[in-house]
Design a protein that fits this description.
By secondary structure, the protein is of the alpha/beta class. The chain is about 50% helix and about 15% strand. The protein folds into two domains: about 200 residues, Rossmann fold; about 40 residues, no CATH class. α2 links the parallel β2 and β3. The site of NADP nicotinamide-adenine-dinucleotide phosphate (NAP) has 30 residues, from α1 and α7. The site of NADP nicotinamide-adenine-dinucleotide phosphate has 30 residues, from α1 and α7.
């Protein structure tokens, strides 16, 4: 079988980067998309992935990402909607500027919809496709000072369930992955904000986060990436509309 073509957003760091590494290891042709070219170039050199530098927080940016993938690798068969901004400790709803809300929604919820909408016709035409939304345990639990982020992550659950129903007869699955705490740039930034607000060190914030997990540690980007890779595999054809938590046994 020809190698599947995958588009991974937010591929320059953290979970997205780990997903590119894992999908390449499993033989997929991968387009890595983000804004930082130096990071993407290094990833491409390490893995053989293709890359495209674009911000996907607009309709035009989403169309550019899909167009670049189609031109370079072919129609998208696997879409990993991973890019996001704004995790915990952003701003209380009392201080949440509507512009900040809109910018978080543009990337965290609008872009996954738009990319799915753009990629779905090719998947339907092939009678095969995989869409994975990277949501968060925050979708269920809520977090202080992160109304926009939590609303977007909860929105992804509804989006994925509806997409899974709309596309089921065409051999296309759509699922959500809900990571718990993973030590990435985004989560480190929220740890730094929490540390500044509480007078603790960043390491103490991370120890506190780990202590709430039954395993005593947070999960790794690679652990999330292997779940993504399973959900987009041939073997996962019977799983759709699901929300898979990857949090080492923590309820979120
Ligand atoms: N870390 C956690 O604890 C955790 C927990 C639950 C869920 N998640 C979810 O996991 C996913 C990945 O986050 P992460 O933790 O791996 O954080 P990260 O390392 O900060 O990665 C975020 C990625 O998004 C990209 N990005 C940001 N704005 C973009 C834009 N406008 N256009 C294109 N790409 C953009 C960033 O690259 P550039 O800056 O180069 O564009 C980066 O590659 C997110 O959906 C996040 O909500 C994370």
């Amino acid at each position: 079988m020809a190698e599947r073509v995958a588009l991974v957003t937010g591929a320059s760091s953290g979970i997205g980067r780990a997903a590119v590494v894992e999908l390449r290891r499993r033989g997929m042709a991968v387009m890595a998309v983000a804004r930082r070219e130096d990071r993407l170039r290094q990833l491409a050199e390490e893995t053989g992935a293709a890359y495209h530098v674009v911000s996907i927080d607009t309709l035009e940016g989403c169309a550019e990402a899909v167009g670049a993938t189609r031109r370079t690798l072919g129609p998208v068969e696997v879409l990993v909607n991973n890019a996001a901004i704004g995790s915990a400790a952003d701003a209380s709803v009392l201080d949440l500027d509507p512009e900040r809300w809109r910018s978080i929604m543009s990337l965290d919820l609008d872009a996954p919809f738009e990319l799915t909408r753009l990629c779905a016709p090719d998947m339907v035409a092939r009678g095969w496709g995989r869409v994975v939304m990277i949501s968060s345990t925050s979708a269920h639990a809520g977090e202080p000072d992160s109304a926009a982020y939590c609303a977007a992550k909860a929105g992804l659950l509804g989006l994925a369930r509806s997409v899974s129903i709309d596309l089921a007869e065409h051999g296309v699955t759509c699922n959500c992955v809900l990571p718990g705490w993973v030590r990435t740039e985004m989560a480190d930034a929220s740890a730094a904000r929490e540390a500044a607000a509480t007078g603790r060190s960043v390491e103490q914030v991370w120890s506190g986060r780990a202590a709430t997990y039954p395993s005593g540690r947070v999960v790794t980007p690679e652990e999330v990436a292997s779940v993504i890779a399973f959900l987009v595999s041939e073997e996962a054809s019977g799983i759709s509309g699901e929300a898979v938590t990857v949090a080492g046994g923590a309820s979120g």
